[in-house]
Amino acid sequence: MDAIDPLEQALHAARALVIADLVTREVVQAEVVSLVEESVAHRRWWVEQWPEGIEYVAGLVAQDVQDALLERYGRWPLCPVCGSGDPHALDVEPELGPDPHWVCGKAGVVVAPVGGLT
User: Fold this and answer.
1) Is the pLDDT score of 1 beyond 60?
2) From edge to edge, which strands make up the β-sheet containing 91-93?
């Protein structure tokens, strides 16, 4: 049996985590899944250029999809913590690091790991 390529494993995991958050927030139309696939393809190239960045892929894919959604549809995912004021999106932290989480930058609260939105 062949060993699973760590790059492919990381990319599949990142795809699954981001799609899980999209499903939870009910924004997983075909066009949105295409945005995820575009990000995964871009990040495959990125990690091939910088293999040490493999542990950052999930957070980067989440940020890529968030940016693409902002351009086409609006803010995502909206913050569930702040009940007043203008609706705002959660941020991915760390921006470039392992174990990415969705964070409310206004309240300074960790909401969920990427892939763990409720």
Assistant:
1) no
2) 91-93, 101-104, 109-113
Reading the block at residue 72, the tokens are 């086409």
Residue in 67, 5, 66, 10 with CA at minimum distance from that of residue 40 = 10
How far apart CA 57 and CA 3 sit, in angstroms, is 20
Cis preceding linkage at 77, omega within 30: yes
Separation CA 3–CA 89 (nearest Å): 39
pLDDT tens digit string along 53-71? 999 999 999 999 999 999 9
